[in-house]
């Protein structure tokens, strides 16, 4: 998601999976018509990234944070590639 790149996406997904799926908080019934993993990756991961970006930028709007996420995809792919050791 945006400047967090594939590495950030993997970290966010792992944490949200632990918080919501492994604990049973996010159930199949709550996610219909999607599966819980689809809901997590298509809704919760992007929303988490938007809120983290807004926090990074100290109080910008969620709409502005979403624009930054969209505009910074190439940067994230380059800097936070999931194949990097850092």
Automatic annotation (TrEMBL):
It comes from the Eukaryota. Its main location: cytoplasm. GO terms for cellular component: cytoplasm; nucleus. The keyword Cytoplasm applies. It is found in: Cytoplasm; Nucleus. Pfam families: RTC4. PANTHER family: RESTRICTION OF TELOMERE CAPPING PROTEIN 4 (PTHR41391). This is Restriction of telomere capping protein 4. It comes from Funneliformis mosseae (Endomycorrhizal fungus).
